[in-house]
Amino acid sequence: MGSSENLARVLVVDDEENQRTALATMLKAWGFASESAADGLEALEKLSQFPAHAVITDLMMPRLDGMGFLEKLKAHPSPPPVIVLTAFGNLETAISTVHDLGAFWFLEKPFQPQALRMLVDRAVAQSRLREQTDSLTRQLSYQGVLGELVGGSRIMQSVFSLVRQVAPSRAAVLLLGESGTGKELAARAIHALSNRRTQGFVAVNCAALPETLIESELFGHEKGAFTGALERRSGCFELANGGTLLLDEIGDMPMATQAKLLRVLEDSRVRRLGGKEEIQVDVRVIASTNKSLEEAMKKGAFREDLFYRLNVFPITLPPLRERREDIPALCAALLADLNQKHGCRITDASQEALDRLSSYSWPGNVRELRNVLERAVILAGDGTIAKAHLGPPLVEAPAAPPEAADDEMNVVLNVGTTVEQAEKALIYRTLAYTKNNKTRAAEILGVSVKTLFNKLRDYGAREVDS
């Protein structure tokens, strides 16, 4: 089977020395490299030095038995497939172990060597395939693809690096960034690279639910807990048990719910609305927001203790305007997806269209880019997307003052003008230039329309107060 470095590795875990020796001899004859351990604790130590492709373990052992070993192994970043050996009479326990603890398979003693050989071969093949998949994922990420995230720019490669580093851990992650930057895609990438990837990924938008329903959505409810609760319902924490829960737009969560969420994060227990029993859950929590939680804390709108519980590993997703070099690759990925969705045959975008896409400020970020391309795909149908397919405001060149009208856009600032006063003057002058076209003004200023409206609302409120 090749050099010793290329041999598949199998760890044997059994408290009976004769059984360990016999299995090790058998594995060597089949061409595997093997190590052995007398119980679950020793096996966990061995795995740190001997990254096995498969494990064969007995159930009944001192110190840490087979079931305890499998439970501990679930926290391993990339646990190897485990074949459980069980004595006659323990068949029900073995089946439960496979079902509940994720063992690969089980064999009842005494077993046929051919049967064990077949299972070891299959377990090793599964492990090798996972290695190849992980390696391919790493290669793709270095080429600008990580899950559904796309970006070869330096700033996105930094994000990819953080995602790869935090994924195998159990740490809470706080994803920050403007709306449309791909925070949910980053959360899904973290889940896909974690040892929880075989379990569920559940996302809940804290801003989309009314205050009266958000606790039921998160924690579940019993029948009759409130008007309209016609049956028992599991909440998102129960649905994500063993997997990952994304709390999207966490900054919009009501204060009362924040207190209950903090308790669940601290105790890993949930109680359904109207219920009496607490339910143990094992959930990796990722939160995301497009707001400044620090500002929300200052205003008393977000709990400080919850912020520090969630902000263990922050990752900021950059706006599209700060990584314009990624736009061609993003377009290629989005066009492939949109072709499939709409049954179109778009091959690419013209250079003129790409230049226009790359020069736009993208206040709505990647989500806005997808919407623009979706419209263009439907209009074009097949072939190449032209600039004319992009639609307003992209069809026209970016609004900029002509050289002959420089004075029209000049803003004169006197010494002593504050930054806030200068910003206000620039915004009003730009609006005057665009004849109060706020979309065009936001594009010139390089901010989102929402940001522009918020600034104008603040100015109006201050003028009324004064």
Tell me what the structure shows:
With 466 residues, this protein is of the alpha/beta class. It has four domains: 133 residues, Rossmann fold; 172 residues, 3-Layer(aba) Sandwich (Rossmann fold), CATH 3.40.50.300; 69 residues, Orthogonal Bundle (Helicase, Ruva Protein, domain 3); 62 residues, Homeodomain-like (Arc Repressor Mutant, subunit A, Orthogonal Bundle), CATH 1.10.10.60. 47% of the residues lie in helices and 15% in strands. It has 19 helices and 18 strands. The chain is globular. The termini are far apart. About 2% of the residues have low confidence.
CATH topology of the largest domain: Rossmann fold
Q: Class by helix and strand content?
A: alpha/beta
Q: What fraction, in percent, of the residue positions are helical?
A: 40-55%
CATH superfamily of the largest domain: P-loop containing nucleotide triphosphate hydrolases
List how many beta strands DSSP finds: 18
Distance, first to last CA: 83 Å
> Which value, in Å, is the CA radius of gyration?
29 Å
Approximate shape: globular
Q: pLDDT below 50 for ≥5 consecutive residues: which ranges? A: 397-406
In the residues, how many domains can be counted? Answer: 4
Counted by DSSP, the helix tally is 19
Write down the oligomeric state: single chain
Largest sheet: 5 strands, parallel
Summed up:
With 466 residues, the protein is α/β, with parallel strands linked by helices. It is built from 19 helices and 18 strands.
